[in-house]
Amino acid sequence: MLKITSAVGIQAVSALRHGRSPCYVALQCLGRLDTKSQLDQKLPSSTFLNKIVSNRCCLHHSVRCYAKNKDKKSNKGQKKVTIDEKLLAEHFKYNAMKTEMEKAVTALKNNYIKNLSLRSSTGALDSLPVTFEGDEYVIQDLAQIVRKNPKTIILNMISFPQAIPAVLESLKASGMNLNPQQDKTSIFIPIPKVTKEHRENLSKGAKALFIKTKDTIKELQNKNIKLLKDNDTLATDLVHTLQDQITALADKYVLDAQRIMEEKQSELKGDS
Predict the structure, then answer these.
(1) Backbone dihedral region for residue 154 (phi beyond 0: left; psi -120 to 50: alpha; all else: beta)
(2) Phi, psi of 153 (to 5 degrees)
(3) Model pTM?
């Protein structure tokens, strides 16, 4: 009896190694035993052995189900991290980091207002950056901006005529779909019609600026976490706690920036 059950077990193990069902192989063995038992009454019937194999198969499947449930449990979300500003301020320049993250979000908001408008305005052009003779200026430093009519803006460049090529280049690269025309020391800027393509380009621009802001915030996060890890005077558990809180704070500002982006994209999509 022991020999027979061992033989069935060996067949089942071999099946597992070759990717086959151990239950199926074991039952095949039992079928052959039934045929032999009819010829030789001393050989045991498969009835008892079938119970053994069935029990082993059930055990095999129950173990697999346990592993699946364990994996599912590991995918649960992490617990919410509470930010203790006093604790953070005690161990590194927390206020400076927080200020820089806030500046990044504010800069994104201002960038949207000034440079991602469906209709070009004198306000949007005022702060458009221009690189001239190795330095960076804004257009209002180099030109007098005049709105001739609702469809045309004029830049009077009489004070800095040598900067006209740089201003033209900046206008064309502004992402505002501008097509400036030069007439002596004046630049005429027709306000473009709002098209679907123009809306899509502005929406893509909004996402690109958000990604840039997100990267800035994450760089600040990683920089300060590295400073904490390099500080040998801090306990490991404390470093982990501070790291989690810094990450939570950075995620908060990223979410703020994302909300601003989504609001801007909604505005660009729905504005007529």
Answers:
(1) beta
(2) -115, 140
(3) 0.55
Instruction: Give the number of C-alpha atoms closer than 13 A to the C-alpha of residue 186, restricted to the C-beta side.
Output: 11
**Residue type at position 104:** A
Enumerate the β-bridge partners of residue 187: 155, 182
213-220: long-range pairs with CB below 8 Å, 24+: 213/104, 213/105, 213/107, 213/108, 213/257, 214/254, 214/257, 214/258, 216/104, 217/101, 217/104, 217/105, 217/250, 217/253, 217/254, 217/257, 218/250, 218/254, 220/97, 220/100, 220/101, 220/104, 220/250
Query: Is 96 a residue whose pLDDT tops 70?
Result: yes
What whole-number distance in Å separates Cα of residue 30 and Cα of residue 49?
Answer: 7
Write out pLDDT tens, residues 5-22. 455 555 554 554 555 555
Q: Which residues pair with 155 in a beta bridge?
A: 145, 187
Cβ 153 vs Cβ 191: under 8 Å: yes
Q: Which of 104-113, 176-185, 208-217 has the highest mean pLDDT?
A: 208-217
Q: Does 1 score more than 80 pLDDT?
A: no
CB contact at 8 A, 224 and 92: yes
